[in-house]
């Protein structure tokens, strides 16, 4: 038996080495491609460096920190808007992000933000003149695209518009439960709900169907991105739409979004709620 | 033996009940006191509710999350500026915060922000006209008051100005190593460094001594809070000082602070860096 088992091991060992080499090569090629695409895509938009340096003290002779600690710091920095625009999750954090979004922490993080928003909504409601408004982003705010990202490396792959569009057109994105609860509470308080999404107007029908199927009803406006807005950053596009709301006489008392570009810019909300999202960044 | 053991159990049971009642009573009194103080102190400043609800789904019949997960969510929400102003760390998170600030995560979180800032500083420097400026907060940004907070429950105790002043007057706050490194890098790039602190002007001498002793040298300005600025929020006070810098012709390209009130308001920096601080909140 022994020789046979050793032979099996050797075979397995060699195949593993070969597979590892293939993976390394593919990764290197993809990474380079992503960098080039990223540089080209972002160059016009952003006067910022695209370098992401994860904290490792090893180079300076200090004790190296575990990847989990480094990746948690990366995620925190992203949530606090400390990072330069980033295109993909750092490679060493792929596993960390996968575990986070599939674990209890992501759910808990979403819940805290929703509860804080709910408490605020009850206190901030200005009156019964029907002018209080709350802006909700759609993707990763009301609806979750986790099933899509599960098939695409949880943010490790460079964003593929065509593939993502196919997913959107299925209309099968599930609701984020804590957001659905907040959405209903906000509506019950008599606050107008404006859904402001980066999805294109061509996806109006499927977005309406998906939202309704998941329990979101009776919004006052659903604003999708028109062709004329396609070249704007999300920050500019969404700020302009908020400015329109103000011009129509609405008081934007709350704004929920998973991207800083949902919340910053001009005509910002009295208070903003940043939902966690470690998978992608939209400028 | 049995009767004796039962007697011991009963005695133990009764003492436990008594202790629980005492703890409940003390907790209620302390909580009420904190709320009253908080309400009084914040009423003029902040049109926001001071409720902190930690995420627990138990009340709704869902599975309860471990305290560590809930406290991590609370900390993340604070860092993403999602929370209403808070006065003390939630009681159940006392241990979590203590472990965080004394562990590798806090150091790692500080390092990521400093490295990101450093990368940006190198790219953002505008020219050699001596007009580029970087604003640094002092407490929990350049200097650490961890030795003080270790003696005061790591943010679990309500802030005591008199006690904290005594600590400041010792001049023994250690440098935050990653901030010292960033500070020196920024200076070497020829960027002016403005130290903008909520400390009062009466602490000018001891602050200078403490900073120098810890390796911070050659700042261009150290701005402390004058008596006239004492009733302003930190956001207003610091915004006004940044506006003065701009009026003097400086371009504020970077701003590092552990409080959102260091970074928000008007005359904001081209880019801001929020250092972690789960121990206290300054409006």
Q: Can you put this structure into words, describing what you see?
A:
The structure is a homodimer of 283-residue chains. The first copy, chain A, is of the alpha/beta class. Chain A has 2 domains: 1-44; 105-274, Rossmann fold (3-Layer(aba) Sandwich). The first copy, chain A, has 9 helices and 5 strands. In chain A, strands 3-2-1-4-5 form a 5-stranded parallel sheet, sandwiched between helices. In chain A, helix 4 (104-124) packs parallel to helix 7 (177-188). Chain A starts with a helix and ends in a 9-residue tail after the last strand. Mean pLDDT of chain A is 85; it is low at 1-7 and 24-51. Chains A and B meet through helix 2, helix 4 and strand 5 of A and helix 2, helix 4 and strand 5 of B.
């Amino acid at each position: 038996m022994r020789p046979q088992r050793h032979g099996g091991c050797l075979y397995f060992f060699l195949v593993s080495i070969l597979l590892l080499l293939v993976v390394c090569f593919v990764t290197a090629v993809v990474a380079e491609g992503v960098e080039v695409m990223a540089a080209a895509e972002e160059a016009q938009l952003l006067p910022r460096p695209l370098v992401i340096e994860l904290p490792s003290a090893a180079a300076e002779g200090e004790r190296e920190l575990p990847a989990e600690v480094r990746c948690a710091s990366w995620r925190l920095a992203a949530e606090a808007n400390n990072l330069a625009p980033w295109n993909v999750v750092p490679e060493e954090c792929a596993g960390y992000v996968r575990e986070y979004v599939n674990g209890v922490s992501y759910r808990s993080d979403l819940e805290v933000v929703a509860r804080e928003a709910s408490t605020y909504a009850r206190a901030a409601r200005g009156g019964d003149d029907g002018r209080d408004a709350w802006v909700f982003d759609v993707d990763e705010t009301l609806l979750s695209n986790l099933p899509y990202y599960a098939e695409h490396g949880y943010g490790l792959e460079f964003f593929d518009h065509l593939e993502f569009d196919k997913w959107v057109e299925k209309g099968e994105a599930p609701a984020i439960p804590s957001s659905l609860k907040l959405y209903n509470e906000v509506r019950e308080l008599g606050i107008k709900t404006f859904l402001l999404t980066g999805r294109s107007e061509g996806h109006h029908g499927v977005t309406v169907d998906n939202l309704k199927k998941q329990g979101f009803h009776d919004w006052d406006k659903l604003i999708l991105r028109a062709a004329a807005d396609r070249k704007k950053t999300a920050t500019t596009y969404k700020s302009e739409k908020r400015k329109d709301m103000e011009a129509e006489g609405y008081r934007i008392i709350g704004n929920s979004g998973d991207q800083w570009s949902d919340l910053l810019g001009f005509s910002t909300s009295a208070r903003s709620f940043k939902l966690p999202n470690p998978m992608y960044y939209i400028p």
